[in-house]
Each structure stands twice: as C-alpha cells, then as structure tokens.
Amino acid sequence: MSTLAHETQTHATSRTAAPAPGGAPAADVEDAVRAVARRAKVASRALATANRATKDAALEALADALVAATDEIVAANAVDLDRGRASGLPDGLLDRLALTPARIAGIADALRELAGLPDPVGEVVRGQTLPNGLRLRQVRVPMGVVGMIYEARPNVTVDAAGLALKSGNAVVLRGGSAAAGSNRVIVSVLGRALEAVGLPADLVQSVDEHGRPGGVALMRARGLVDVLVPRGGADLIQTVVRESTVPVIETGVGNCHVYVDASADEAMALEILLNSKTQRVGVCNAAETLLVHADAAPTFLPTALAALAEAGVVVHGDAETERLAPEGVEVRPATDEDWATEYLALEIAVRVVPDLDAALDHVRTWTSGHTEAIVTRDLPSSERFVAELDSAAIMVNASTRFTDGGQLGLGAEIGISTQKLHARGPMGLAELTTTKWVVHGDGHVRP
Known about the structure:
The protein has 447 residues and is α/β, with parallel strands linked by helices. It contains 16 helices and 16 strands. The strands form 4 sheets. The chain has a 7-stranded parallel sheet, sandwiched between helices. A 4-stranded parallel sheet has the order 5-4-3-6, with helices on both faces. The longest helix is centred in the N-terminal third of the chain and has 22 residues, at 27-48. The chain is globular and about 75 Å long.
C-alpha cells in the first residue's frame, strides 16, 4: 500500500488504534507479559499430542459456554459501547464492537463449523523415498504461540481462540481498550470451558490489563511468541510491522474496488455494488471505490447513484460522476484522499474511466492489495483483470464481501493477509501452521 494511502486513512481507524511506538515498556509490564507468553508456550504442549476428537470436543464446549454466558457478555459489551459512543468512536467501528445475542450465537456456530473441518496438523504436504532409501515427509505442525493485536472487535477474540485451538496453538491476545470489558468476560468464559474439558486455560490469555505497554511487550516477546498477527486500522498494522521483533504476518486494510466494465449486466452490477458497499460497512472487505467504464456510465451511473443515495451512502465523485448524477443526488468532489481512503462507513468514491487500462492503473495506484471486483460479460476483460492486478483476492461478477474465511469454506479466519510470504488472503487453519521435515532411515550416514 502506498505511503499516501496510509497517511490519509487515519480518520477511518479506531481512536484506540495502536500501542505507542518507541521505547521499552516498564520492566514490570514486560516481565508480566513474558510470563503470560511462557505459560502459553507450556500450555501449547498439551495440544502437541492432542487428537482431532479432543480438539473438536473442546471447540464444541467453547461454543456452548459462550451461548450460556450470552447475558454476561452482552452486559459487558453494552458498557464498552457506551464508552465508545462517548469517546466519538465512528459508526463503523461501533458496529464492529457490538455484540448481540444473535451475533454471539453466530460466533458460537463458527466454532462448531471449525470442529467440522479437517485438522491440518499432521497433514503430509509432500513426501518421497530417496534413491538411498531415506523416507521423507514434510508435515504440518503448529506454530506454537500466536499473538494477536487488534481493535474493537470482540468476535476476533473468539475466532483467534478457536483457530488457534484447532491448529494446535496457544494464543495471547491484546484486544484494545474499546472492547476491554467484552474481551475480559469472553477470555474468562473460554478459559473456564477449556479447563472443564481437561485443557489448560492458559491456551487463551489476554494482556489487555497492561494496556498499550502490554502490546509493545507482546511485540517484543521474541522467542516466546512465535508469530504476531495485527488486525485493525492502518496505524495499528504499520506500528506493529515497524516495532515488532516477533515475526509478523501483516493483515491489510481494505481499500477495495468494484469496476463496472462496458459489457457489464447493469442489473447484476448494481446488486454487486450495493452488496459490496452496504451489506456491512465497517469491515475490510467492503467496497470503498466504484470505477465505471465511460461506455456504461451514462446508463448505469444515474441508477447506481440514486440507489446509493437511497441507501444513505455519501458519494465522492469526479466531474463526470457529478455530471451524470440524477437530480437530488449530491456528489461531493473527490480528491486523492478519497481514492486512498478505507471509509469503513456509508461513503464511497466514484470515478468514470475511459477504458479497462485506466481502471487497472487506478487500482494499482490506490489499492491496499485486499480485494478487487470486476463486473463484465467480456472474457478477455475478466482475464486481464485477474492476471494484471496483484491483490490477495479478485472477484469476477461477485461481491467483494466474499473475501472471508467462512464464505470461502475455510471456517473462521484470523485475518486477511495482504502480504506475500507464508500466507495470503483469508488466514484459516492451514495458515496457522508451519511445517517440519521428518526423515526415516535405517542406519543411514552421509557419505
């Protein structure tokens, strides 16, 4: 993602954004966080030999415990929401923060879905017998201890715990002050459920009580935390990438694009656009920019702009978009800041482009590398869009909202990776494992 894109997205990120960069945390905080990480490492050994049945039973127990504790969790969440509104947290982030009985039931169902997925641990990635008789296998194994730093999303607490458990890892969480009460209750509920099925509560721990210095200490617990995953706004992610000594899998903000090609079925394009933008706005796979081919714009844009306005979406557009807007629909002049911004709100940037080349150039300039969608009936156009753009996910005649672990059949996800090393796109179970080589011989020695 471009530096400009990071600099111009700050208004869309949480006001609790990131651990303060620079300087070491106080010695007592660092000692406390490292003690948490040590307990996590010890606890992770309990999963090293656990079979799938044991892990799946634990996931079912976690799901049942969350549903049973719904009233307690919702009450704690209400306090977090009140505090968030008072501090001016944006509507999109308040939506991410909110837990309802229905959402808690959905989170529990996601754990049950995880229980139904194959266990990645022990999967043979490749193997062979060498001419000298050595038998080789490369197998999936747990990372060990996974750290998570994230904002205003208590559902991530559960997703991270479930994915870590199924993939054989312990997890240490720093969930941010906005969701502190919700996360405290959830971690407690999960810990009690783990103990009830004979597993250590230390498999799921939080360092929230230590605040931002605790987050910094977690970033620097190299040797105790095996991998760190930041999930949130651009400020948080870039702070973790810059400051961490623990290996980081970088998840990305979602400046996602929908491009309506000249040949697009306009009814399909309208449905995809509205779903991408309005189905849920405070998420990284929501569309933030609409690009329309000049040949389609005169018929498509008036209808699309009216539909966006009816849905409450504020439009930031170029001069041609403003010219084509129907009477009564306001179009605010778009600037480079709009092309760079992940709004996480009912706002969208709109631009009319002369051809596919211009659309591709625009996306390459402003994308965060998350998800791009093309609506077209022209096969060569779709093939160029897929081949020439380098984002983690490309949708052809489908909503950007499908870039999601559950929607792609991976179960819950720990984040959407926009980097290229180790994991890219939705990070499910396999992405929370690494591999080891197992070599069997019969007294072999190297000549």
